[in-house]
Amino acid sequence: MQAELIRIYPENPEQEKIDYIVSVLRDGGVIIYPTDTVYGIGCDFSNTKAVERVCKIKNVKPQNLSFICYDLSEISEYVKQLSTPVFKVMKKVLPGPYTFILNSNSSVPKILNAKKKTVGIRVPNNSIPRLLVKELGRPIITSSIQGEDDVIEYSTDPSLIFEKYENLVDIVIDGGYGGNVPSTVIDCSNDQFEIIREGLGEVEGLF
């Protein structure tokens, strides 16, 4: 298996390419895609075998994966009712470089929250992953391709990403150079705001 490298311009994504990538996702494919932070690796969140592939590639457990939603209304399909303060903060910063840890409901596949009843959710400020989610009709898994020992050049240059992953995934989307700072992670599962990781998203004056 060798991956395809597909160039998409975030400012004007070609619908034909989006539709093709969605068809690969529906067939259980694993893709690498740009976000508003670092490049991510993921799949259709409802496909158990594809999720297991992502976990094997990343050497992580399913419960450590987050997923991308199109907007706030889609988020509400997968989490328990948000408190007013949490909703206001999310509405203020999304789409944006934040991951919110929220209490999940029964619509989230068991493989993603078997041992914990929370999920990490993103709405990145990048048209490519959001359009993929919109056309797919459900979230896609997201995990940073960046590891602790990755050099900055590797994690931002799509051609170098392709070289590393061309025999591991089905598609690498070239959406231009990515960033090297991950999202800010905020745990809201107890209706409080706990900063788990301070990344690209600013937290000063947020709450």
Automatic annotation (TrEMBL):
- Pfam families (alphabetical): Sua5_yciO_yrdC (PF01300)
Q: Which GO terms describe its molecular function?
A: double-stranded RNA binding
Q: Which InterPro entries match?
A: DHBP_synth_RibB-like_a/b_dom, Sua5-like_dom, SUA5_domain
Every YrdC-like domain range: 15-201
Q: What is this protein called?
A: Translation factor Sua5
Organism per entry: Roseivirga echinicomitans
